[in-house]
Write a structure and sequence with these properties.
The protein has helices at 41-48, 74-79, 96-105, 112-125, 141-153, 171-186, 198-202, and strands spanning 2-11, 15-25, 30-34, 56-61, 64-65, 81-84, 159-163, 190-195, 207-212, 215-217. The protein has 223 residues and is α/β, with parallel strands linked by helices. It has two domains: 1-80 and 157-223, Rossmann fold, CATH 3.40.50; 90-156, no CATH class. The strands form two sheets. Strands 6-7-8-3-9-10 form a six-stranded mixed beta sheet, with helices on both faces. The protein has a four-stranded antiparallel beta sheet with strand order 2-1-4-5, covered by helices on one side. A hairpin with a 2-residue loop joins strand 9 and strand 10. Helix 3 packs parallel to helix 5 (141-153). The mean pLDDT is 94. The structure holds adenosine-5'-diphosphate. Adenosine-5'-diphosphate (ADP) is lined by residues 11, 15, 17, 35, 37-43.
Length: 223
């Protein structure tokens, strides 16, 4: 699903955000990208959905070579990825249902019955069926993140990328959110989950890789 060979990324000002990263993520895998703030986690994820580009190495995601891909193909590539951030980036003037349905509509789904069915399913999956007509700002942080997850997965993308999705949530809610990702993984999605929350990672047996100062450390280095 994801293959990185000797990837390096430098930002202007000689900031070496990533150095010589090699990583393979198999289809159906759940992998944590762990590491402190500033380690390079977000930069790595941005490479996967082609928001940033490495200047060295090779990166292949969903069979697409992202250092050779034509710019106009990038929106199509992103449609195969569900992306979830720490801040929920919701449309606050739209209801839960409308936020999630919007994600289907922009990808060209027109049939109302199909939009309704798929939107209700995604909302149910994240446990928000009884809140589907509510507006995001009337809901808790945990509920808002659930909307963001439903919106990201309503198109059933094979790959789900989450960048600190529990960063704004207290520990109990973080466990609930992790459970949703676990269920998505059980349904077959590949999950890449970046976090600095070691307790959350340690509560699972999923694979973990650690980034420190832009370098990937071995899994044994996680203590
Ligand atoms: P993390 O997600 O682990 O907190 P980031 O990938 O955001 O780490 O950042 C890695 C390094 O790259 C940091 O030193 C950060 O300041 C720097 N950085 C991130 N984005 C940019 C940018 N757009 N321009 C310049 N430097 C950046």
């Amino acid at each position: 699903m994801i293959k990185l060979f000797n990837i390096s990324k430098t930002y202007p000002g000689k900031i070496h955000a990533l150095s010589n990263i090699n990583l393979h993520v198999a289809k159906g895998e759940f992998i944590f990208i762990a590491g402190p703030s500033g380690a390079g986690k977000s930069t790595l994820l941005k490479l996967f959905f082609a928001e940033e580009f490495a200047e060295e190495g090779q990166i292949i995601v969903n069979g697409i070579n992202l250092l050779k891909v034509k710019r106009k193909m990038i929106p199509y590539h992103r449609r195969s990825i569900g992306i979830i951030f720490q801040d929920f980036k919701l449309l606050n003037s739209k209801t839960v249902f409308e936020n999630v349905a919007f994600s289907l509509i922009v990808t060209g789904v027109k049939k109302k019955s199909e939009i309704n069915k798929r939107t209700y399913e995604a909302i149910k999956l994240v446990g928000l069926s009884d809140k589907r007509d509510a507006y995001p700002l009337k809901l808790s942080g945990g509920e808002q993140q659930r909307i963001a997850i439903a919106r990201a997965v309503v198109n059933e993308p094979p790959l789900i990328i989450a960048d600190e999705p529990t960063g704004n949530l207290d520990p109990e809610l973080s466990v609930d959110i992790l459970d949703i990702f676990r269920r998505l993984n059980e349904k077959g999605s590949t999950i890449v989950f970046a976090t600095h929350n070691r307790a959350l990672i340690k509560s699972t047996n999923f694979r973990r890789v650690i980034i420190s100062k832009g370098r990937l450390l071995s899994e044994e280095d996680f203590t």
